Amino acid sequence: MWKTALALGTLAFGLAGCAGFNTVESDVSTYSKWAPARAVGTYAFERLPSQEARARDQERLEGIARPALEAAGFKPAADPKAADVSVQIGARASRAERSPYDDPLWWRGGLYYSRFGRHSFYGPQVIYHFDSPRYEREVVMLIRDRTSGEPLYEARATNDGNTPGGEDLLGAMFKAAMKDFPHTGVNPRRVSVPLP
After folding, report:
1. Helix boundaries (H) for 37-179
2. With a cut of 70, which residues of the chain have pLDDT below it?
3. What are the φ and ψ backbone dihedral angles of 176, each rounded to 5 degrees?
C-alpha cells in the first residue's frame, strides 16, 4: 500500500515539475489612467522612427504582442487613423556576463576542511565551474488615446534566463504585462503565464 502511495506521490511531483517548464514567470509593473467608464475598443500600432527604420523586425514583434492585446479585449482597427487607441511596444534581451568575482567561494581561493582542521588554499582552480551567460529580458507596452495622445496604460514585464528567448517566450511576457488590464496592482508583482 505504501509503495503505491509513494509511486503516486512521485508521479504527482514529476508532473508538477513538468508543468513548471511550460510556464513563464515575469515581474510585471503596470500604471493606469484608464477611466472606469471607458470601453475597450480598437487599436493601431504606433512606431517610433527607429522602429520604422527596422520595419520588418517591428512587424514581427507586433505580431507577437497582438494576442496579448486581443486577450485584453482590443480589436485591430481597419483604418489606423480611426483607432480608439495607439499602442507602442518594445522588447529587449541583454546579455549579462558573470564574473568569477561574483561568487568568491568558487573562484581560485577559499577554505576547505580536512580531519586535521580548516585550511586555506590559493592557486589553480580545483573545482571547474562553467558559467553560462544570463539574459535579462523585458517587454514594454504603452497605450495612448489616439486623438489626444494622452498615455492611458503602461505595462512592463521582465525576467531572466539562460537564453535570449524566442517568440513564444516574448508572447507570454506580453500576456503577463496585459493580464490585469485595465487595472494595476503591486509593482512589481510576479505573474505566471503558460506557454502555448
Report:
1. 49-53, 55-71, 167-178
2. 1-20, 98-131
3. -65, -40
